Amino acid sequence: MRVNRILLSVSLVVVALVLQVSVLARLHLPGAVPDLLLLTVLGLALVYGHVGGALVGFGAGLLADLAPPADHAAGRYALVLCVVGYLAGLAKPENGRLRSATGPMAVVVVAAIGTTLLYAGVGALVGDTTARHVGLPSLLFTAALYDLLLAPFVVPGIMALARRAENDPLADTNSAGQNTDIASGWLSGGTGLRVGGQRNGLRVKAARARVARAGRIKGVKRL
Length: 223
Fold this sequence. Notes:
Elements: H1 3-22, H2 36-66, H3 76-89, H4 102-125, H5 130-134, H6 136-164, H7 173-188, H8 195-222
Helix pairs in contact: 1-2, 2-3, 2-4, 2-6, 3-4, 4-6
């Protein structure tokens, strides 16, 4: 991962984890806890792709495993978020544009359910049966509901910040040009305007203006 991606990912993951532990976990909502860390990983994976999503997911999960008041085996949540980040990155749009919010919302619901199931499954392998006592169906429903309600306020902002971080001065020239085109497409997606087409149009107009100015100068010289 490039420098800008690493710095942004670390910052967002740390902020999400602090808010999750200090605010969301203390709301004492029925069932599951809204997973801000998961939404952060999903937002970054939808921009960085499956490889970046897996790396961010593993780092975020490992940090959650080690941060207090974690009471489970280290590496458990890291494995879960690594798999979820990889799979979510496969849903990254090819042209860098999302046609609607249906796709990301579906990814959030599937990820919330999948994360809960994977976490409970890995726990069962190491002898943790907490999910059975709490009630797995209620955990699945509340996890999907809370994350779906929180997603519109988190995922778009995470994706916007990630697209801005694509302008890395240490990146290759070609990759920087491609990332700029993708970012321009994202920014102009809501208006229906194509930034690349506007630039080409301005170049054509400038060329025509130079030709016309040269013609006027030649006409003056002949007189």
